[in-house]
Please model this.
Amino acid sequence: MLKELFQRSKKIVIKIGSNTLTGEDGFVSKNYLNEIASQVNDEIKQGKRILIVSSGARVSGLSAINKWARKADLHYKQALCAIGQVELMDSWRRAFAEHSVHVGQILLTKDDFSDAYRTLNIRNTLFTLMDEGVVPIVNENDTTCVEEIKIGDNDNLAALTAILWGADLLVVLSDIVGVFNKNPKQHPDAEFIETIENFEELQAKIQSSGTSDFGTGGIQTKIEAAKKVAAYGIPMVLANGKMPLVLKTLSEGNARATRFLPAAFQSAL
Model:
């Protein structure tokens, strides 16, 4: 079913979390970005259109100016993101340049999705980039965001972007292998859930807690993202982003992952 899901999807949004991008040294892994860029390029050669929602701006900022690591003030966090976004995009640019592929940066806020004129402009930009073979790299505009216009996590940003673009599939690459009925780090008997069709029932039963050091989303935000896209008939796959050749492995149906299937796909697959 996982292989069929990828085969029938031409427009794919890939969201990559901060922990997934980060190496053991706590900084964004250039090797990881290179591997993802290579796999995305392979997918593009097969006729896929790929959009990346990339976390990692703050981590990249800290790697550039780590003397601010203990600064908790909002202005310092936003300043780190301003610095880090440049570093992050340069890393993505270099990774895709190895394959003669250009990237384009799009920074968004919650307001961008609620204003019809802005959403039209975003769609036009996305389609133009895609038509010219450019890979869009989307992130939240943390430098200008305050609570009133903040989406808050890139899982939901990816969902909103997938809906806006009319994607066929949302792939969330995280530091977990998928959804369990309870936290596997705390409960050795936790059961892995391969396919989810009833999101409300899942949220009522699941036990979840904790977030990563840099990420703002836990398992609940991923379920919320799945619910958002499911309402528009878009399936979502949640997988461990650090498995070797993750995109290739997923597309071949050889990975352990959780599939969130909207009603339209439950009968089609």
